[in-house]
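Hey, weird one. I pasted the Ribonuclease P protein subunit p30 isoform X1 sequence into the form twice and got a warning about non-standard characters only the second time. First submission, copied straight from the form history:
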Amino acid sequence: METAFGFCDLCINAEIVNKNTLHKVLDKLYEMGYSTVAINRTIEETVFESEKKNKKKAGDNEALGVTVPSPPDIADLISEYAGKLRILNRLTFVFGDPTRTHTLNQSSSLRKYDLYAVVPKTQAAFQFACSQLNTDIVLLNRNCVGLKLSRKLYLQAVERGINFEIQYCDVISSASRKFAIHYSHLFHMFGKSKNIFISSGASIETQIRSPYDIINLASILGMNETKAKASILSQSRYVILRAEGRRYGKAVFRIQTCSTEKREMESEMEIEAEETDDEHGDTCTEAKKIKL
């Protein structure tokens, strides 16, 4: 498995239909030194209601199963930027009712996306995302007004391997800056910014910043230089690898070498202890007990 993902930007909100804008964004990312990017598609939970109404109007008597839109066809982009950028597909689901996620998870189209992120709009949705939902990313943005993040909930999500996203476009924008910095400081206070990664959330090329500008910007988000660099390198890589596990399932393996060496060492210690006991009698038995 290839592990060199380089600097990552895991949320580009460029419209796939606008090829010129998307090419400018990708060119800017490559010039800035990025190696892995994710093109994001956002859907609201209201799309399910719209599809159900359309089926009823059309007289469709089939089960009201909702289909998630397939990811955009980026085969041409992958071919064009081969050797320059690794391009991924990402789906972001904005929801307030936790039951909507069950409908989404039943869709076969979800597995076609490389990354799966959610934006909870209610406290119930937020708690469900952190404690039960099988997602890769939880994003808190301006849609998440009034959500309460506690230490217990945050650490519970971290224990499950869920990653929290900070988009620096929210930090740069005056309209959302206070909100983004507030939650960033809570992440630092509750868990020293564990499982935090930074993306752009950009839609146009002028919103892109270099990786080293992001590292400097992260200082106001409660991150030191090491954490900031990890948020666009190793932590982003972890997000991608976890997403692979969600899509294809988990594997369990054993490493027998370490356990074999341990058993050999224990056998040698037992032999030495027996020899010492035979030579020195009860005195060395006491010494062996103290040593153990």
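That's the output from the first submission. The warning seems to come from a hidden character in my clipboard, not from the data itself. The longest helix spans residues 256-280.
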